[in-house]
Amino acid sequence: MNFIIEQSVFHNALKKVNRAVSKSNTLPILSGLLLKGAENKNLQLVSTDLEIGIELEIGADINQTGNIVLPANELSNIIRELPAEPIHIKVNQDNYTAEIQTSNSHFKLNGFNPEEFPSLPEVEKNYNLKINSDQLKNIIDRVKFSCDKNNSQPGLTGALLSIKENEIIMVATNTYRMAYCKKDIDHEIGEEIRNIIPVNSLNELSNLLGDYEDEEVNVIIDNSHIKFYFGDLILTSRLIEGKFPNYQQVMPNDFNNLIRIEKDSLLKAVKRASLIAKLDSGVINLKFTNDKLIIESVNSEKGHAHEEVNIEMDGGEQNINIDVNYLIDVLKIISEEEVKLELIGPLNPLTVKEADNEDFIYLIMPVRPGS
C-alpha cells in the first residue's frame, strides 16, 4: 500500500478513530488501527475494543492498494508532530511495516498482520431510525451521567433506548438517581423497540457527534448491536443483554410542593456547600421554607456549610437529604435559566425539571437519616 495524505486531514481522523482503540493489553492488535486502501476509494480507518467499533473514510491519494494495522498511539504521536504538509506513507505488506515521510522527516513503524484484526459485526436491519445529530447528542448528554459505574447490575451500566409511536426515550439509573429524556420523532412504529446501550459507547458517541453539528444520523438496530452512520463516520456498539428496571414505577405522578429557582444561583450555592459536605458523607440537607431554600452540609466532622437561596414556593415547609454530587451533576447539564423542584416528602424522590420543559425528568432518591 502506498498513499499520500494531508497532515491535518490524517491528524483529525486519527483523533476520532482512536476513541475505540482498546486500552487493555489482552490482544495487542486491538491497540492498533486498521488502514485500508482500495483502488478508486478513500482511505478507510478502523478501530475496535470489541465493545465499540469506529470506521472513518478520509480523502487520500492512493497509488497502491493494501491493508495494514499500525499501533494507534505511536502513529498518532508521529502524525501530530509532523508539519502541515502532504505525508507519504509506504507500506511493506510482507513484513507489516510502514514508512512515513515528509520533506524533512522519515519514520519507520512496525505494525501487525491486517488479517488478524477482528471484523466489525454486521448489523441486520431490525429497525432503522433517522434523527438529527444535535438532537441525539442532547438526549445522550442528559442521561448518560446517571448510569451505574460500579457494574453491580449489567442492565444499569448503560442507558435504555426506547422507541415507540412518535417518540424516542432514553433513561439511565443507578437506583439512587434516574435521568429521563424524551424527544418527538417523525418515525411511527407499532411495537416498542427497547435496547440498552453501554455508557462507554454513549460517551464516545456524544464526543464524536460534537464534530457533526446539524447532520442526519442513520441508526440501525438488531438484537445484539446498534450502528450509527453520520457524516464520514460509522460507530458500532454491542447492546447489553441485562434487564433494565421498570422506570415508570418510580416516576412520581403528583407532588405537594413546587419550587422555582434560578439555576445558576442554586448551582453556585450547592457547589459551595459541597466543599464541606464532600469531606465526609457527601450529603446535604435542603430545607424549603417561605421564600428561602436553606442548604446545609450533613454529618461532617470537618465543619459546617450554610447557604441560602431565594425561591418561589407553592406548598408547605419541607426538607430532604440528598447526595450533593447528584444535584450538581444535573444542574451542570441544564441550559435553562430556571429549574423546578418537586417534592412529596423527605422519604420520596426529589424531582428536578427545567422550568418550561416536561420532556426531561431527573429523580434523586433521598438519603435516610443515619444512612
TrEMBL record:
Where does this protein reside within or beyond the cell? Cytoplasm
Major location, coarse class?
cytoplasm
Q: Which SMART domains match?
A: POL3Bc
Domain DNA polymerase III beta sliding clamp C-terminal residue range list: 249-368
Give residue ranges for domain DNA polymerase III beta sliding clamp central: 131-246
Which GO cellular component terms, listed alphabetically, does the Swiss-Prot or TrEMBL entry include? cytoplasm; DNA polymerase III complex
Which ranges carry the DNA polymerase III beta sliding clamp N-terminal domain? 1-121
List the SUPFAM superfamilies.
DNA clamp
Q: Which family does the similarity line name?
A: Belongs to the beta sliding clamp family.
Q: How does it assemble?
A: Forms a ring-shaped head-to-tail homodimer around DNA.
What PANTHER family does this protein's entry cite?
BETA SLIDING CLAMP (PTHR30478:SF0), DNA POLYMERASE III SUBUNIT BETA (PTHR30478)
What exactly does this protein do? Confers DNA tethering and processivity to DNA polymerases and other proteins. Acts as a clamp, forming a ring around DNA (a reaction catalyzed by the clamp-loading complex) which diffuses in an ATP-independent manner freely and bidirectionally along dsDNA. Initially characterized for its ability to contact the catalytic subunit of DNA polymerase III (Pol III), a complex, multichain enzyme responsible for most of the replicative synthesis in bacteria; Pol III exhibits 3'-5' exonuclease proofreading activity.
This protein is called Beta sliding clamp
